[in-house]
Design a protein that fits this description.
The complex is a heterodimer of chains A (about 140) and B (about 70). Helix content of chain A is about 80%, strand content about 0%. Chain A is an all-alpha fold and about 140 residues long. Chain A folds into 2 domains: about 70 residues; about 70 residues, no CATH class. The chains are: A mainly alpha (about 140), B mainly alpha (about 70).
């Protein structure tokens, strides 16, 4: 049976949420020691490279999880909603990145780290997801 | 897209969850289809039609036919 009896979430959504929570936990465990080492120790280029990759892996895992979710989701309505959210978040983030890039090039805004781009994408996507959930609950009473 | 899903479901005394389980989608999907917020794919529309043993066009109102009637 594809539909859950009482939950607002499909099995694929629950699996995706579990994966993302585990990856966030891994990120929270991995990042602080890497930041500390970077701030307090001299490391070789190779170690710096490995540290950067280690910090990126949980975030890359989250993006992979979205892909897996879209593949696993058997409920076409939820799949369509997620694709719409991804399109909105991608357009908004890319737009913001382009505008910020030119503002930075013309000396109006300071340089920001590139990892803020996916962070903004995740925040926009998540925000729309929460808005959708409350809007749906409001419609359904 | 307008449809008669709510009426057909009510005639059988099914809840949205009952219908969702029969056509293997979430209850939210049924709600979105009934309220016209989501148009089902052709395979899902066929599943719904087969469940009610009716042609698709007796459940879903063709938007073009509806607008031509309005003219």
């Amino acid at each position: 049976m594809l539909a859950a009896k009482t939950s607002d979430f499909t099995p694929a959504q629950r699996a995706h949420t579990r994966r993302v929570l585990l990856l966030l936990l891994a990120y929270a465990v991995i990042l602080p020691p890497l930041v500390w080492v970077r701030a307090h120790r001299q490391v070789s280029d190779l170690v710096a490279l490995l540290m950067a990759i280690a910090a990126s892996l949980p975030v890359l895992g989250m993006f992979a999880s979205w892909g897996r979710y879209l593949s696993d989701e058997r409920d076409e309505y939820h799949q369509a909603l997620t694709l719409k959210r991804i399109a909105i978040a991608t357009n908004a983030t890319m737009g913001a990145a382009v505008v910020w890039g030119f503002l930075q090039a013309f000396g109006v805004m300071p340089l920001i780290e590139a990892y803020w781009i996916p962070t903004i994408w995740v925040v926009i996507q998540g925000t729309f997801g929460i808005i959708e959930l409350f809007a749906r609950r409001g419609r359904e009473g | 897209m307008e449809n008669r899903l709510r009426v057909l479901r009510a005639a059988r005394s099914w809840s949205q969850q009952d219908l969702a389980e029969r056509i293997e989608v979430s209850r939210q999907s049924v709600n979105a289809i009934e309220t016209g917020k989501y148009d089902p794919s052709l395979p899902l529309a066929f599943r719904i039609a087969e469940l009610f043993d009716m042609p698709i066009e007796e459940i879903f109102v063709s938007p073009s036919r509806r607008s031509s009637k309005a003219i």
